Amino acid sequence: MIRIREVALSAGLLLSGFSACGVAGAQQQQMAPVAATNGVQREAIEWLDIWVADTQVTNLPRVLLIGDSITRAYYPEVESDLKGKAVVARLATSKCAGDPVLLQEVALLLGQYHFDVIHFNNGMHGWGYSEQTYEDGIRQLIDLLRKDAPGARLIWATTTPVREKSDLSRLDPRTERVQARNQLADALMVKDNIPVDDLYPLVLKHPEYWKPDGVHFNESGTAVEAAQVAQEISKLLK
Length: 238
What we know:
The chain starts with a strand and ends with a helix. It has helices at residues 27-30, 69-81, 100-110, 131-148, 174-192, 199-204, 219-237, and strands at 3-8, 14-19, 33-37, 40-43, 48-51, 62-67, 87-93, 117-120, 153-157, 163-164, 167-171, 196-197. The chain is of the alpha/beta class. The protein is built from 7 helices and 12 strands. The strands form 4 sheets. A 6-stranded mixed sheet has the order 5-7-6-8-9-12, with helices on both faces. Strands 1-2 form a two-stranded antiparallel sheet. The protein has a two-stranded antiparallel sheet with strand order 3-4.
């Protein structure tokens, strides 16, 4: 069951967010689609996590990371790597491109804060959506970012592979859909002249980076991702 919780911001501001009890442990269950309502796919557990740090700082550029639990995992290290160069916020969600609520969540944050760089990803959830719906959803997300954050420099992050829980040396069949979604998103980024942070090949040949669930990354994998994310964002800050 979804419950509302208050997400604390470092300056004392509170935003309402959707959260699950024990988010990380329930990831596999919540990624499974349940019955659709008016064409919108719902998962067993849905959540939203927004964190905006150092709201009082005005002399540094602001960076926003948009993604899911994988983005949330590498966020602290990205924030640390960019310390003194930028202030980093995050919006992590279980909503997939194609779900209108994703756009509402992003619009909520962009309506309150200015961001100079937005590093965004979506693709690990919403397996019940068709690739056409996913593509349309990414297009809508780009349009929203252009409209509500007109001065922000955008960078897209590819979705990472999924591995079999029983044998991390093998890719899970869902990785084929990840590849398809990455190709669709990449084409849109080329069309819109948006640079790509390609996390997929970064981890592809390193099963030792994964946690036992085959989706999330251990400390080593998270560190590698964070380093590349921070490096690519730094290019845009310059």
